[in-house]
Design brief:
Elements lengths: L1 E8 L6 E7 L2 E9 L4 E9 L2 E7 L9 E6 L1
Antiparallel strand pairs: 1-4, 2-3, 2-5, 5-6
């Protein structure tokens, strides 16, 4: 629990976004990640529990969503 940071690199050809969800609630997001760019998202005060990361809504393919647990 505490702060958690994600380093996100867009290796695609379209602008993307990155989200962290707790259930249906967005607890952190970073947008306007252009092709070839890297952005860091830091989420503060993360409680123990299950979360999910997701790329821009509407995107498809492997790796678009991933679950993780904070202990």
């Amino acid at each position: 629990p505490g702060s958690i940071a994600f380093t996100v690199t867009n290796s695609g050809s379209k602008v993307n976004e990155f989200y962290v969800y707790s259930g249906e609630d967005i607890v952190g997001e970073v947008g306007n990640i252009g092709p070839g760019l890297t952005r860091t998202l830091t989420v503060d005060d993360v409680a123990a529990g299950t979360y999910e990361t997701a790329c821009k809504p509407g995107m498809s393919g492997d790796g678009i969503r991933a679950a993780f647990t904070v202990r």
